[in-house]
Design brief:
Ribosomal Protein L9, domain 1; three-stranded antiparallel sheet; 4 helices; 231 residues
Length: 231
């Protein structure tokens, strides 16, 4: 089936593209989710008429998603699973478990947004991609631990790291403020210095002009005396 995309779809196309997709994909996902229109003359005319609206809607959505992604930068989660001594899980970590754990941290993530390139079946740290938007895909660290003790230790360690990060941020901000105050004081001193120098230069100019005026006056007087002598 040919459809007109109303937003960018990963590996399919971008807004406004007319693409051919499987009938099931169109009927079960693209059309009911209003992510596309059937590609016929009537719908093409509708799209062209409302193109600007679709573009603005997509731009607003992208901006919103970018803000969400910023709040999820360096996100990591911990999941406890039963495993053998060798570290192999008795089962695997499902996408739903990852999404639910991320939600507990205050981020509204859907299971369908979790991208698992391979099944997680071992204890350890795994990088998992989350597709917030076709143009915004971020990575999350998923720590799979064996028992509650490991989970508590990991949570404590993570909290310590967060506190250290906050302290570093505060110190950076304080240093920035001190630097700005120092720069401001330096500028004020420079302005005062320049103002003082300008006054000195002005005084010198006044003295110079005064001396010149006195010299001109004396010169005129001398010329007057010489004229009287000649007479």
């Amino acid at each position: 089936m040919e459809v007109i995309l109303l937003e960018r779809i990963e590996k399919i196309g971008k807004l406004g593209d007319v693409v051919k997709v499987k009938d099931g994909f169109a009927r079960n996902y693209l059309l009911p989710q209003k992510k596309a229109l059937r590609a016929n003359k009537e719908n093409i005319a509708i799209y062209e008429k409302q193109k600007k609206i679709y573009e603005e809607k997509n731009a607003a959505l992208l901006k919103e998603v970018q803000s969400i992604a910023k709040n999820m930068t360096n996100l990591s989660i911990s999941i406890r699973k039963q495993a053998s001594e060798s570290g192999q899980l008795y089962g695997s970590v499902a996408a739903r478990e990852i999404a639910d754990t991320i939600k507990l941290k205050g981020h509204d993530i859907q299971t369908k947004q979790i991208q698992l390139n391979s099944v997680i079946k071992n204890i350890g740290v795994h990088e998992v991609k989350i597709a917030l938007h076709p143009e915004v895909i971020l990575s999350v660290k998923v720590k799979v631990l064996r028992n509650d003790e490991e989970l508590i230790l990991d949570t404590t360690k993570e909290n310590d790291l967060q506190e250290n990060a906050k302290d570093e941020l505060i110190q950076t901000e304080e240093s920035k403020i001190v630097k700005e105050e120092s720069t401001s004081e330096s500028k004020e001193d420079s302005v005062k210095k320049n103002t003082k120098q300008e006054k000195i230069n002005q005084d010198k100019d006044i003295i110079k002009e005064s001396k010149k005026a006195t010299k001109d006056t004396k010169s005129k007087k001398n010329n007057g005396k010489q004229k009287r002598k000649i007479k």
